[in-house]
Design brief:
The longest helix is centred in the middle third of the chain and has 22 residues. The N terminus is likely disordered. It is elongated, with a radius of gyration of 28 Å. It is built from 7 helices and 13 strands. The relative contact order is 0.12. About 25% of the residues lie in helices and about 20% in strands. The protein is of the alpha+beta class. Helix 3 packs across helix 5. A hairpin with a 5-residue loop joins strand 3 and strand 4.
Length: about 290
């Protein structure tokens, strides 16, 4: 069991967001393990020859990099947990997000990085690895995540995912927000028990560009007066893989309903200003 540890979001040698229920106590001692523990080697460790971060996996598949201090208080427990493992080469003790002690060899900080940040970085990398591999291993999820984390402007769009059941495309009945794809962890938690995702459609507002109107009298540029606003129309902005909703298709309630899909209720747009009336008011003031 080797001695690097890290995680930006956890105290101690701790798992990141996905390590639920394993909290460090006052002196969480870092690089250690039980019989199920196994080393997790980061890219930096491979490049520098550093030791490997020791992790253990829960029955639910969560990666844990944090160990409680009581696991080291009884020599018999220490022997049972670590005698069959690889040699411990280092440990970090963290309390309340403060580095209390370092023993042996742990993660080497990068330029401008503190020892605590380095330890937590390695822990975060180890804990998030299953989720990252899950998303990277599916071309559809990976493509949608690239869209969500890139320059795509409609980040509040809805995403409909499709699986194949006995040769028939079936939509997941829960629509995702595109922002859900910005982190691999949420996708892993929600989709790891589903069948393989084979298609996705990103659905958002169909935006109509209003052209300005130039008055022939004074040359001023004005927007046209508008009537009461209509309900927003939805369109398929992007499509990946096998999906019946192709790019630029209007996503009408009838079309979605045929596939058993009901998107969340959307608010009607605000009443637009009557620009003709506003113009008349300004003209009256000029006349006066």
């Amino acid at each position: 069991a080797e001695g690097n540890a890290s995680d930006e979001s956890a105290e101690g040698i701790a798992s990141d967001e996905s390590a639920e229920g394993i909290a460090s106590d006052e002196s969480a001692e870092g690089i250690a393990s039980d019989e199920s523990a196994e080393p997790a080697k980061s890219a930096d460790a491979e490049a520098t020859g550093e030791g490997q971060l020791l992790v253990r996996t829960t029955d639910g598949g969560l990666i844990i990099t944090r160990f409680r201090s009581h696991e080291f208080s009884d020599p018999r427990v220490v022997f049972q947990n670590f005698a069959k493992g690889r040699t411990i080469c280092g440990a970090a003790v963290i309390e309340n997000n403060k580095l209390k002690n370092v023993f042996g060899r742990v993660t080497t900080p990068k330029p401008g990085e503190s020892q605590l940040q380095a330890v937590l970085r390695d822990s975060n990398d180890a804990v998030s690895k299953p989720a990252r591999e899950f998303v990277a291993g599916n071309a559809i999820l990976s493509a949608v995540q690239q869209l969500a984390t890139g320059d795509f402007s409609a980040k509040d769009s809805q995403v409909i995912l499709f699986v194949e059941t006995k040769g028939v495309l079936t939509a997941l009945q829960v629509a995702f927000n595109l922002r859900d794809f910005q982190t691999s962890r949420s996708l892993h938690e929600r989709l790891r028990s589903q069948s393989e995702i084979v298609g996705a459609s990103v659905i958002g507002d169909f935006k109509v560009v209003e052209r300005a109107v130039v008055s022939s009298k004074d040359g001023a540029t004005r927007r046209p007066a508008s009537s009461a606003p209509s309900a927003p129309r939805l369109v398929v902005l992007e499509a990946f893989g096998r999906t019946p909703f192709k790019k630029q298709m209007l996503a009408t309630p009838e079309l979605l309903g045929r596939h058993g899909i009901q998107l969340p209720e959307r608010e009607r747009p605000r009443e637009r200003e009557n620009f003709r009336g506003a113009h008349d008011s300004r003209r009256d003031r000029r006349d006066r």
